[in-house]
Structure formats: structure tokens, C-alpha cells
Known about the structure:
Elements: H1 2-31, E1 35-37, E2 40-42, H2 44-56, H3 60-80, H4 88-94, H5 98-116, H6 121-124, H7 129-150, H8 152-155, H9 159-175, H10 181-190, H11 193-205, H12 211-220, H13 226-235, H14 242-259, H15 289-306, H16 310-345, H17 348-353, H18 357-362, H19 368-375, H20 384-389, H21 395-407, H22 415-421, H23 428-453
Antiparallel strand pairs: 1-2
Helix pairs in contact: 1-15, 2-7, 3-4, 3-5, 3-7, 3-16, 5-16, 7-16, 9-15, 10-11, 11-12, 14-21, 14-23, 16-22, 19-21, 21-23
Amino acid sequence: MSSNTETVGTTTSHQGLWKFILPSLIGVLLFMTPVPWEGAITIPVAVLAKSFKALLGDHAVTVVTTLVALTALLSSLVTLIKPLQQHNLLRTLFATSLPWLAVRVLGGVFAIMTLNKIGPAMIWHANTGGLLLNDLMPVLLSVFIFAGLLLPLLLDFGLLELIGSLMSKIMRPLFNLPGRSAVDCSTSWLGDGTVGVMLTNQQYEQKMYTQREAAVIATTFSAVSISFSLVVIAEVGLEHLFLPFYLAVSLAGFVAALIVPRLPPLSRKSTDYIDGTTPPAQPHKQPSLCQLFHSGLDQAISRAHQSAGFAAMARSGLKNAAEMVFGVLPVVMAIGTLALVIAENTSIFSLLGTPFVPLLELLAIPDAVKASETIVVGFADMFIPSIMAASIESEMTRFVVAALSITQLIYMSEVGALILGSKIPVNLFELFIIFILRTLITLPIIAGVAHLVF
């Protein structure tokens, strides 16, 4: 009897181990394995997304506009007509607060105006709504579909439990974050910041992160991908300096990750979970690496056992993808368009950049006035500073502007709007404060590297 019990237990353990290993390995290959693609380094999920976008071709913009307009219509009906909220799926996807309903409707209106080029030109111009609808939104749609469908491979089969246990030795002392947050950072770094935000939001909703942890990870570790960094440095004509450029970005980003979460508003975020419950206390005595591995593996196998399999994963993935498509695309279209309209048609960002002129002069950056005009505009869109800096004569200044635009991290045409559209507890004003803090912290570091290079 004892022998049979031991055999059954061993078989169950082996089944759990393989149930953990196979889906997790596929998840790592899809989300965290760098692959060459069209002259750049990216991840397979991004390749799938780009291939899907290419498949849509000229129809991509029409598809996106239809989805955003449909979201605005259904959100209005479900939010305002209470009986419709009795349907779980409709309530989950389309019921929202009145302020967010207004944002979704505005996103739908902007999309229709831009597609048909009707109304004020400042809305649908190629540098405002046109930039978002034609260039960014089809990319986001493709990323959301594949990342949403496949994220359960990382979330539901134990990988984060194992990595989280191992990385707690590093992430907890340095950043006061769970070890699993290292996965979010790696996914953003190798693939796309939007995927990192999606991953963070999903774990926050599953009570894997506290409110503070989710806010810190989304605003600090949703790093820009290596491939996008290559695009930025190419825009300012300094491709030959990519290695020192990315060294400056990495060093400045690391320092900002140490400092910004320890300052308001992030330091004041609640340490409770999304539902207000308190997480268990952390042990005072830190276990050894071997103990962490065994503990993490046990947790991973247990998590894999709890998973209902690939059918449940598919349902969860479809729900993830639908929530991102219907919940985030209208927000990106609305807030991103407004931010770009302000950047293109007013001098607000130039005026906001004026206080940075003395700092740039103190750091001995040439063309300080022109450089200052690019600093705050990065809050609207990460790529605009590099476009503006391309005409600056000084290579050092172009180097600084390009690197700074990446380390600022928060920009409303994509990551910022994505965070606002998620459940992560950060508002627009807090995002701007974090953006300014990151600017003040990373600018001197980048300037220091620039002086060593030039």
C-alpha cells in the first residue's frame, strides 16, 4: 500500500513538473527570447504582432476605427442602461465610470474624424490623430491580441513563482519589489513596454502585487525595447554610438529605479492589494539561494497543478485580449490625440521646458534652449523629442535628447495612456510628476556619459 502511494505521489509530482516546464518554456520562448527580425532584435510575440499587422495591411486603420467606435457605443449603452450589466461579459468589458466613458467616447469620435479627415484639421493631422491612428493603433491592436492570448503561459503555470523566489534576493533589497517583477522588466526590455504594463496589470488584478508595487513596476520597469532604442538613435543620426547611448540609458534608468519609488507620489501608495486586503508579512531571515530555488519550484508546481489547462488558458487569454482592446485603445486615441494637439499647436511644452535651460547650461549641453524645448514634449510622445532634435547641430545635444526621451519612460501616446486605462492606481497628475522626477534624475547622468563620449 505504501509503495503504491509513493508511486502515485511521484507520478503526480512528475506530471506537475512537466505541466510547469512545458507551458513556461513556451512562454519564455515567446516573451523573453531575443530574435533577429528585419534588422532589429525583438521577441517572437512582437514578430507575431507585426506579421498580423502586415496581414491586415491597408484595412488595419479601418479595423481599429471600427473597434474604437464600437467600444464607445457599447460602453455608452452598458454604462447608462443598468439591466445590460447583468451580463457578465458586457459588464466586464464595457461598464465604466462616467469620466472614463467620456474618454472612450472621445476616442471613438477622434478615430472617426481622423479616418474620414473631417472636422478641425488639428485633430486628424498627420502629426496628431493621424500619427496615432495610422502608425501606433494598428501596432497596439496586434500586440494586445497576441500578448493577451499568450500571457497566461507566463502567468498561470508557475514561471513567475520560481523566478519571483529566486530574484527576491535582488529585487527586494534594491527596489523593495517582489522578485517576479524582474519578468515584467525583461519582457519590456526585450519586447515592448506595453506588454510589460499588461503583464503588471494582470498580476495586480490577481493580487500578486500591492497597489504600490504595481504602480512602481508600471512607471519604472516598463522599459523601452532595444529595437525602439535603435529607432530613436537612428532618428538623430548617431547609430554608430549605440553602445555608449544604451549604456547611458541603462545606467540612468537603474539610478531612477532606485530613487523615484522612494519619493512621492509612489512612496505614498497603499501597500494593500487591489481589494484592500493586506499582504502577508515578509520573513526577517532571508533563506539561501538553494532554499529559494526549492521553495520557488514547489510553488511553481503547485501553481501549475491549480491551472485548469490549455482550454482555460485560451479563455483567460481571450478575456485579457478583449479587455486590452476595448479598454485601452479608445483611451490611447483620446488622450494621445489631445496631448499631440497641444504639442503641435501651442507653445505650452516650450514654456514648460524653459526652467530646464539653466540646468542644461550648468551641465554644459550645447544649444540649451533648443534642447529644453524637447524635454517636456516627451510626455506627449516619446518619439517627438528625437524628431525635434534631428535638426540640432550639436551631436552631444542630440545624444542627450535621444537618451533622455527613453529614460523619461512615461509618454501619453502609449505607455501613459495604457497605464491610465488599466487598473493600476496612478492618475494623470501623478504620471506627470513621475515624468518630471525621472527627467531631473536621469538628465545629469546622461550628460555625464555624453561628456565622456564627446
